[in-house]
């Protein structure tokens, strides 16, 4: 009943609401001082680091491409540059990242899977290893980073609205996984950003590649900023501005032991098992909702009306069951009373 009334599906995509603390006279000055520091000191410094790190990467990468005749060595150098760029981005975001567990490695027949909170997840993981990623191709300004900056990592982009992309992407993923000379592949099997308090259904695609699956847990601490990107309501530039003006972005990254599909286990069951493992380690609530439905807009009035109708129907059903139950109890009581009277009459006779 509670899930129906409160819509447990949309709970997976609700942002964390900060608790106001500047509610009295002696706390307000400290809050205003913090606003000044964050917006007028930290923000310009961080934005400068972000912009100049990208410019430096593009310039050095261009020089590398011109001077290095061996294509393979040029790509390897670009990957190292990407690692430095990712750590510069983490510094610009005020990132406090703790990596633990099994260190990621380059090799064939392996795929890394992680829960997904934001596009920043990829930047955080790039700080540990230069992963190639499978993801949605976004419009500008993100398209510039996907097509130009991340080109050296052989990432696989697709358009969710194009059905023909699915077969092509599946083939490219399998080819990438089979190679040992490319960056390890990272997949977010939820297929959408979730609020880091829940996980939604892991799609089976990453679990039917006949490869080892390396689970990764991302758990953000929202004490300073909520890392969840609500793509339905917040633009990327606004989201980036919120990150750049926060005190810090805190995240624990845990690389878990490699997992293999068990004999008799289907890819769907394998995906559920890995999802449960990631959820348990990250303290997240696992659900089996299809995250794709997040992108389908349904009128809120229609949802509220259906919730109300369903709740009323269930309440009527419960009341009817209670009424029938009460009548049944009365019949049993009357029957016992009747039997008692008959036995008393026989004794008197």
Topology diagram in text:
Layout: H1 2-6, H2 8-11, H3 28-67, H4 71-92, E1 95-101, E2 110-114, H5 120-126, E3 132-136, H6 142-149, E4 156-158, H7 164-178, E5 185-187, E6 198-199, E7 212-221, H8 236-244, E8 249-255, H9 267-282, E9 285-286, H10 300-348
Parallel strand pairs: 1-8, 2-5, 2-7, 3-4, 3-5, 6-9
Antiparallel strand pairs: 7-8
Helix pairs in contact: 3-4
Descriptive overview:
By secondary structure, this protein is α/β, with parallel strands linked by helices. Helices cover 50% and strands 13% of the residues. The chain is built from ten helices and nine strands. The chain has a seven-stranded mixed β-sheet, with helices on both faces. A two-stranded parallel sheet has the order 6-9. Strand 3, helix 6 and strand 4 form a beta-alpha-beta unit. It starts with a helix and ends with a helix. The N terminus and C terminus are likely disordered.
Mean pLDDT across the residues is 83
Q: For the largest beta sheet, what order do the strands appear in spatially?
A: 1-8-7-2-5-3-4
Q: Unreliable segments (pLDDT under 50, ≥5 consecutive)?
A: 1-6, 339-349
| Count of extended strands | 9
CA(first)-CA(last) distance: 57 Å
Overall structural class, as computed from helix and strand content, comes to: alpha/beta
- Following the backbone from N to C, one meets helices and strands in this order, namely HHHHEEHEHEHEEEHEHEH
Q: What is the number of helical segments per DSSP (H or I, 4+ residues)?
A: 10
**Proportion of residues in extended strands:** 5-15%
Largest β-sheet summary: 7 strands, mixed
The coarse overall form would be globular
CA-based gyration radius = 28 Å
Please bin the fraction of helical residues.
40-55%
